[in-house]
Structure formats: structure tokens, C-alpha cells
Amino acid sequence: xxxxxxxxxxxxxxxxxxxxxxxxxxxxxxxxxxxxxxxxxxxxxxxxxxxxxxxxxxxxxxxxxxxxxxxxxxxxxxxxxxxxxxxxxxxxxxxxxxxxxxxxxxxxxxxxxxxxxxxxxxxxxxxxxxxxxxxxxxxxxxx
Length: 143
Known about the structure:
The chain is of the alpha+beta class. Helix content is 20%, strand content 35%.
């Protein structure tokens, strides 16, 4: 199975192009960027955009066995030739201001159906907002 296929079927990554894989400190990091044919203006939806800078953002994904998996997104700042807006590419893998993927959120919810909050949260630690009385997604436990 190819890496692109693993990203698509295992992590729900659609509309992104695979760049490379890194293995650092026991973690797996997949580098991906938006498919050039899928780039569009976040304001008006026009495909007539040009790149004006870039940056990377790392998202926590569903683990593979005991290894942590991260998706390193190489995002571009896009300037629209129609409406002249200058915005970042829309992020479809994650909710705004979150550092975990939507697929990881669904995975944690499934774990919560089978385990109590403390055992489930200890698997992810502080990375998903687990603290006193919180579930891994930051939802307060009912006493």
C-alpha cells in the first residue's frame, strides 16, 4: 500500500499531496501540502490565485500502534486575482485553532465509548487538552 493510500484511507487526508515522511524521536511525521489543482480563494472560491508566502503547521493524527503520528501541513498564503484578498489556504483537516485532526477527534470519541475518561486521556496527555476533570477533547466531566 502506498503512503498516499495510507494517508487517504487511514487518516482521512483528501485533497492533499504527499511530500515526504520523517521519523523523529519515535514519532512519524508525514509532510503534505494542498493539491495545486484544489487551491482556491478562501474569500470568493476563485481558482485564480497565486502563492504569496508559506508556513508549516503540525497536527496530531491517529496513532499507528504506540507511535505518535503528526501531519506537517505546508500551507501557502494565497492572493486572489479576482477579489484581491490575501489569506491562508483553508484548513479542512482540523478545526480552527486546534492542533489535532478531525479523524483523531472521532477516534477519541470512539475510545470514550469503550473506556472511562481518565484511561482514554492518559493515552494522549496534555496534547488534547486533558487536565483535571477534563476529557481528552476538553469537555468537563460530569460529577
